[in-house]
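Example record for the data management plan.
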Amino acid sequence: MTRCRYCQAEMTVTFADLGETPLANSYLPMTEEAKAAERSYPLHVMVCSICRLVQTTETIPADAIFDYDYAYLSSYSSGWVAHAKRYAQAMIDRFGLGAESLAAEVASNDGYLLQHYVSAGIPVLGIEPAGHAAKLAEAKNVPTDVAFFNRKTAEKLVAGGQQADIIAANNVLAHVPDIRDFVAGFPVFLKPTGVVTFEFPHLLNLINQVQFDTIYHEHYSYLSLLFVELLLRDAGLQVFDVEELPTHGGSLRVFACHPGAHSVTDNVARVLDEEYAAAFDTDAAYAAFDGRVREVCEGFHNFIRDAHEKGKTIAAYGAAAKGNTFLNVCGVGAEQIPFVVDMNPEKQNRLLPGSHIPVRSPEALIEQRPDYVVILPWNLAAEISDEHAYISDWGGRFVTAVPEIRIR
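Corresponding structural encoding:
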């Protein structure tokens, strides 16, 4: 019996069963010993028929994933840093933030977002469990507490005289196993008229675009507004606005506050209506997804086979977690794709988890001149293809594989 981690109801509906895979951000040293010691875990996702939380069934302890050396650093995506800058300016303008305000971010990573408030003269505080990322943030003049956020953390911050006017929680809501305790910290840490915003990939887009590669162990939850509104209401917060964003294949930015502190916009009902139109309140909306995953993998295998039969060479771009899920679920390794490139030097000269494809610097594209470059983080395809348009000099072409093969 598998119970919902939020409401404890028994779950019976599978959303996606992706077999066993290693942790998506656990890059390996280039040694046989490291490969032999690698562990894999079931990657099975189910939906709760009561509260409608889509969730993994295997709960890997968060501190086993987000340790001091956690490899993901936000600042290596120029597009994401620009997104964060636009967000900070929008919040300053909309809510009148200034030198007397406190802007905070939960899961603040390397200071990619809060640095923009610092530039505007607004005091900031980051809360980040990965010590390495927090150290990089401090170097950007972003004060950072190294901690997992929850109610206890929030109470400690308030006891120390800190309460926030604006809190960002970008792409973290899915990363916490105890989502109830995590969200319980926000009404404590938030000033009476303060605002907290949550950004997360919208489950509606995950389903419509077959974005199964966004499923991995550190994403415990896959979120709809239908569930998130329930979650925040149970915590004592009110959703008062929501924006649909293009980031991460289609995301929501949900605005919440203490009840009555801000007027509710029509956007909330509009997005909920979209989800009800997709039958998100029924099991049928979720049960057909698993078969569509198999179709995407089959299409990728066909592409690789056809390319090899024509004598074409293939490389990949982006040692991203979503790419690791994609490669492992499809069963693709170094025999089919001999290397992947990434700008993050902390991932270079290591092996992707599971597939064991070596990670090299982008200069390897110029050295090897592959015919096809598969962009694994497809959400950054425009940015990557623009920055590395030089591959056309030798006739190279970019490829994305989700939701189908597209050759650019």
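Summary line stored alongside the record: Residues 289-309 form the longest helix (21 residues).
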